[in-house]
Amino acid sequence: MEQPISWLEQHKYTILTVMAIIVALFFIIAPLWSALRGNPATVAALANTTFATYPKVTALTPLGCPTSDNTKLCDYYIASSAYSVFPGSQVYDFISDSVLTLAIKAGARLIELDIYAGDNDKPVVGLKNETLGYDYAKNSVDFESCCRAISNSAFNKVDTPLSSDPFILSLVFHTDKRNVMDATAQILKDTCARYLLHSEYAFKGQGSKNIAQEPICNFAGKLIIVSGGSISGTNIEELVNLSWNSSNLRRLTYMQASQPYDHDELINSNRTNITMVIPNPTPDLKNNNPTILFSYGCQWNLMNYGSLDSMMELYVGEFQQGSVILKPKELRYKPVEAKTPVLPDPATHSFQPMAHTSPIYDSNPKTGDKSIVI
């Protein structure tokens, strides 16, 4: 026992020096690694290893307009992305707007962004646990840079074969500051003005069209904006085309949609309206089984494209040929047609009093027939 103690006494300064060097290296290397790992180019490079898989397993072709049967927006499944700025399947990671471009090239035609109030009420994109008060992302991304990434990739005919398909941008506001919402609207006008829908499709106001029941080809190469919450009275309200505060669009968690109280009601609703299904609010980015959602006719089922798990394989299988897929006929609305009534043949059917003839009846005093009129 004395030997180890003696050895420690003899080398204590060496041990302390080594420990000091290790601590110093940690404080030097950690910030450098964080800066390198948080660099947008590094995030994009890491994401490329995941997203490069999609072109190898898909052969995406655009919907093609006009369609032969004038089908509506609610008649189609659309490939949809959640956690759209995360490069992989892990939370507590750095995020980047460059991941949006990768997700769009992978086939996503719906992108959802969570918007928060940044410095000076500048809209930023991130992901937070607002109940517990901590971030799932190690940084935030300017909303403007996200819009530019979408504008430059979603409708780019050279880099994106699906550029003519409708594109949906879902905005989830985690702030009630009017300044943030108004700034969001202005950024959309500055970056995506040429792709915005005409005011007749605005959700705001009376008499607006229900785009869920409009022919899908009306939105070819256009940007559809959906949102909800407290946007009333803000500038973003005039740009929103569909709100999940209305009966035309439902926003359900995976748990709510996969285990509905009345699945027949959900199926019938999806014949004329739209259901978007978001991941359950859990601290991970894993995907859920989308098969049951497709069977209920839910159109916009959001998945994490950065997580190449078995559930994502099922999802990609549905969208292997394209990102806008027509639902099965039995899940689409079929108008009830009233048949023209067929009049009876007067030779065999008459509205005259029915006459029973039988030898057991007395003769009819009016006709002399051996019958009685009932």
UniProtKB/TrEMBL annotation:
<keyword id="KW-0812">Transmembrane</keyword>
<keyword id="KW-0472">Membrane</keyword>
<feature type="region of interest" description="Disordered">
    <location>
        <begin position="353"/>
        <end position="374"/>
    </location>
</feature>
<feature type="transmembrane region" description="Helical">
    <location>
        <begin position="12"/>
        <end position="33"/>
    </location>
</feature>
<dbReference type="Pfam" id="PF00388">
    <property type="entry name" value="PI-PLC-X"/>
</dbReference>
<dbReference type="GO" id="GO:0004435">
    <property type="term" value="F:phosphatidylinositol-4,5-bisphosphate phospholipase C activity"/>
</dbReference>
<protein>
    <recommendedName>
        <fullName>phosphoinositide phospholipase C</fullName>
        <ecNumber>3.1.4.11</ecNumber>
    </recommendedName>
</protein>
<dbReference type="InterPro" id="IPR000909">
    <property type="entry name" value="PLipase_C_PInositol-sp_X_dom"/>
</dbReference>
<dbReference type="InterPro" id="IPR001192">
    <property type="entry name" value="PI-PLC_fam"/>
</dbReference>
<keyword id="KW-1133">Transmembrane helix</keyword>
<keyword id="KW-0443">Lipid metabolism</keyword>
<dbReference type="InterPro" id="IPR017946">
    <property type="entry name" value="PLC-like_Pdiesterase_TIM-brl"/>
</dbReference>
<dbReference type="GO" id="GO:0048015">
    <property type="term" value="P:phosphatidylinositol-mediated signaling"/>
</dbReference>
<dbReference type="InterPro" id="IPR001711">
    <property type="entry name" value="PLipase_C_Pinositol-sp_Y"/>
</dbReference>
<feature type="domain" description="PI-PLC Y-box">
    <location>
        <begin position="265"/>
        <end position="332"/>
    </location>
</feature>
<dbReference type="GO" id="GO:0051209">
    <property type="term" value="P:release of sequestered calcium ion into cytosol"/>
</dbReference>
<dbReference type="GO" id="GO:0016042">
    <property type="term" value="P:lipid catabolic process"/>
</dbReference>
<keyword id="KW-0442">Lipid degradation</keyword>
<keyword id="KW-0378">Hydrolase</keyword>
